[in-house]
């Protein structure tokens, strides 16, 4: 079983494994498939699991944790690091604690390790599909929402809090009002969207970056094949006897960030953990730094090209 390094977070009492398993899938997997994949991931050595209310994977993750305990794959829930996220339709001061409690109920847990604001916007109503109408989306009340997130920590519902898809400008708004600073910002980051400026900014603030879509989220409606079909990465992989995915994940890890990667394939799950006993050369890193850059996940691609959304996208 692979041993995964851990990172200390600035405002969270628990260390976080640097690689986590994502549970967002498109099209959504059925509950049994997700549960089975998570149990296989625990067997392979994953101890960090990333979910969100809107993914619909909190319940199968909770069931998988319960089964892993019964099977003796883990001795205690405390061996796991669980991240989930506040969805935008609950991003209002008085709705955050109830939303967090709902996620805990879904997960069958007493506490979450990390609770993130999923998006830097508020939805005025529950939505069944995207994009949304213009009047369904509003600016986030950063002060009120962050107070609600901090209350979740004070009540013992979560060990740490953070954000996702937040620009440097948006983070400054959080830091201006925070008593408990965000431990993490989870953003799209991979060899085709390297985010060097954002990485440096967050490092200076002592906030961990976690990369999502480190392999480009191929075969989803928001991702593409630019990472997995990269000639540069393929050439390095061939010369090293590695997979393209391993080269991409190793590159992300070498940037000093943590990452969440998703595969429900048993062999690829194991391969994705085999990135810690080798390193990329200076020459290889230089080649990867020259890969053309383009952001794949935009708020406009999710919510629609409304003025507020385009303004937020422009901050990246």
Automatic annotation (TrEMBL):
* Recorded GO MF terms: oxidoreductase activity, acting on the CH-OH group of donors, NAD or NADP as acceptor
Where in the sequence is the active site?
Answer: 55 (proton donor)
Superkingdom field: Eukaryota
Q: Which residues bind substrate?
A: 118
Q: Which Pfam families match?
A: Aldo_ket_red (PF00248)
Q: Where is the NADP-dependent oxidoreductase domain?
A: 19-291
Name by which UniProt lists this protein: D-galacturonate reductase-like
Organism name = Coffea arabica (Arabian coffee)
At the highest ranks, the source species' classification is: Eukaryota, Viridiplantae, Streptophyta, Embryophyta, Tracheophyta
């Amino acid at each position: 079983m692979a041993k995964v390094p851990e990172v200390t977070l600035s405002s969270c009492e628990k260390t976080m494994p640097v690689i986590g398993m994502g549970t967002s899938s498109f099209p959504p997997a059925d509950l049994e498939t997700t549960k089975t994949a998570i149990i296989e991931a625990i067997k392979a050595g994953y101890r960090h699991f990333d979910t969100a209310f809107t993914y619909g994977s909190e319940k199968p993750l909770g069931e998988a944790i319960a089964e892993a305990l019964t099977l003796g794959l883990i001795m205690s829930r405390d061996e796991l690091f669980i991240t989930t996220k506040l969805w935008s339709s609950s991003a209002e001061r008085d709705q955050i604690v109830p939303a967090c409690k709902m996620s805990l109920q879904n997960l069958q847990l007493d506490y979450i390790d990390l609770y993130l604001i999923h998006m830097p916007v508020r939805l005025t109503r529950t939505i069944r599909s995207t994009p949304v109408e213009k009047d369904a989306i509003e600016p986030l009340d950063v002060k009120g929402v962050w107070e609600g997130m901090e209350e979740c920590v004070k009540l013992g519902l979560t060990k740490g809090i953070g954000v996702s898809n937040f620009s440097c400008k948006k983070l400054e708004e959080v830091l201006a009002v925070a008593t408990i600073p965000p431990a993490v910002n989870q953003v799209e980051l991979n060899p085709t969207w390297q985010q060097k400026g954002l990485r440096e900014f967050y490092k200076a603030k002592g906030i961990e970056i976690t990369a999502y879509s480190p392999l480009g989220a191929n075969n989803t409606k928001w991702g593409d094949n630019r990472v997995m079909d990269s000639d540069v990465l393929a050439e390095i992989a061939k010369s090293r006897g590695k997979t393209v995915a391993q080269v991409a994940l190793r590159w992300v890890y070498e940037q000093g960030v943590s990452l969440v990667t998703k595969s429900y394939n048993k062999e690829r799950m194991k391969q994705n953990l085999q990135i810690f006993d080798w390193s990329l050369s200076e020459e290889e890193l230089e080649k990867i730094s020259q890969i053309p850059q383009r952001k794949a996940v935009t708020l406009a691609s999710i919510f629609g090209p409304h003025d507020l959304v385009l303004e937020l996208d422009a901050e990246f």
